Amino acid sequence: MTFEEIKSILKNHTVGIAGAGGLGSNCAVALSRVGVGKLIIADFDVVNETNLNRQYFFKHQLGEKKVSALKNNINRINPETEIIIHDLKLNENNLVNIYKDCDIIVEAFDIAEMKQIIIETCMSKLPDKPLIIGSGIAGWGKSNEIRIRQSENLYICGDEMTETSTQNPPLAPRVGIVANMQANTVLEILLNTNHKDEDYAE
Amino acid sequence: MKITLNNTEETFDKNELTISDLLKLSNFSYKLIIVKVNGKLLRKEAYDNTIVKDGDDVMVLHLVTGG
Q1: Of B52, B24, B23, which Cα lies nearest the Cα of B40?
Q2: Taking the CB of the first residue and of the last residue of chain B, which one, N or C, has fewer CB atoms within 10 A?
Q3: pLDDT below 50 — which residues of chain A?
Q4: Do the Cβ atoms of A115 and B32 come within 8 Å?
Q5: Tell me, what DSSP letter sits at residue B33?
Q6: What is the three-class DSSP state of A14?
Q7: Interface list for chain B against chain A, based on CB atoms closer than 8 Å
Q8: What is the value of pTM for the model shown?
Q9: Measuring CA to CA, which residue among B21, B22, B24 is closest to residue B5?
Q10: Using CA of residue A45, residue A47, residue A53, residue A54, what is the dihedral sign?
Q11: Would you place residue B30 in the very low, low, confident or very high pLDDT band (cuts 50, 70, 90)?
Q12: Counts for chain A of helices (H) and strands (E), in that order
């Protein structure tokens, strides 16, 4: 497929991104660059100095709401992507309404308990929607341990091992690998409608 | 019995195991996990009384903080 053909497919699709931190901001930027038509992004947080080691924000945006800062940044890269933002804390009650019209949902929270909530909610209330989660991104090196697994509509990107801590912080390279792996999985689903499950078997 | 655990065929001595037994036997000791049995999500409360039988497909995934 040429890039023009790819863009003509992607522009008709909507991707939901749950969280605008390290995974969400980088994944959203990648999806906009390649021409996804619409992104629905939710987050309640503001840009903090400690975010700049991995998240797609700039120094002058400290203190701004992440969703509006990210919308501005994406608009400067590709204004053709429509960005719908929700400045709120996602929970099991509001996320169905926010993401029900998306073709695919990308889970991009930091806290494991929140990842569990979105998985359980999506699998029970939006079972036909592909859900791409990120799990295990902390530290540096060990790129080969980052992988993707699939079980029906659920895709897991990451090493499923490394937990964030003061001694093992989330850093741009590994977070970026997983965020872009999530974006790459979105493309695989949207562009390759005949994709086979075996592609992801371990 | 033979089951598929995380896409790999595994053999166990017993003919039936609860999910809780299986998690212990397979050393899935992480605090937050998601378990799917034959494609269906299993709630934590059901781990003790859900029986895994020959031929079942079980997926266990770890949720770890960071993003």
Answers
A1: B52
A2: N
A3: 194-202
A4: yes
A5: E
A6: strand
A7: 6-8, 31-32, 34, 36, 39, 41, 43, 59, 61-67
A8: 0.91
A9: B22
A10: positive
A11: confident
A12: 6, 7
